[in-house]
UniProtKB/TrEMBL annotation:
Pfam families linked: Pkinase (PF00069)
Family (UniProt): Belongs to the protein kinase superfamily. CAMK Ser/Thr protein kinase family. PIM subfamily.
Name the UniProt record assigns to this protein: non-specific serine/threonine protein kinase
Any single biological process term in GO: negative regulation of apoptotic process
Record-listed E.C. numbers: 2.7.11.1
Keyword annotations: ATP-binding, Kinase, Nucleotide-binding, Serine/threonine-protein kinase, Transferase
Organism whose genome encodes this protein: Labeo rohita
Length: 148
């Protein structure tokens, strides 16, 4: 399989390590591209299952991104997945509670964790397996309210 690799580029985690957390404008640009890529995967019946900054290439010139590493991927299905592939820190809470998850909500969860990581520089929860609906999310930096 031959895949495109923009030059110059690096994975998004390395980019953030070198340049600091993304500002909200760049994070928005990255997130919109990520969602577009994931919707394309869904339209082709593919579930990525390992969305995280290390699996996104960013062009250091244009800030265009590419989703990579489909090694944990699977065919998309409507029923619950009963095995987890991917990075546990990005796994949805239902995996830890019930040992199953659905594609859409799990993808949304991992996108949210990814967004938090690129904006705040750390993961949102120390112990992903203990997250519940009562867990309070704290932000390590001041972010806009989005009411501009």
């Amino acid at each position: 399989m031959i895949l495109e690799r923009p030059v110059p580029c690096q994975d998004l985690q390395s980019f953030c390590d070198e340049n600091g957390c993304l500002d909200e404008s760049l994070a928005k640009k990255v997130l919109l591209q990520l969602i577009t890529a994931l919707k394309h995967c869904e339209s082709r019946g593919v579930l990525h299952r390992d969305v995280k900054p290390q699996n996104l290439l960013i062009s250091t010139d244009t800030h265009d991104i590419k989703l990579l590493d489909f090694g944990c991927g699977d065919l998309l299905k409507d029923s619950a997945y009963r095995s987890f592939e991917g990075t546990p820190q990005y796994a949805p809470p239902e995996w830890f509670c019930w040992r199953r998850y659905h594609a859409g909500p799990a993808t949304v969860w991992s996108v949210g964790v990814t967004l938090y990581k690129i904006l705040c520089g750390c993961l949102p929860f120390r112990t992903a397996w203990r997250v519940t609906s009562k867990t309070i999310l704290h932000f390590s930096r001041e972010l806009s309210t989005g009411k501009n």
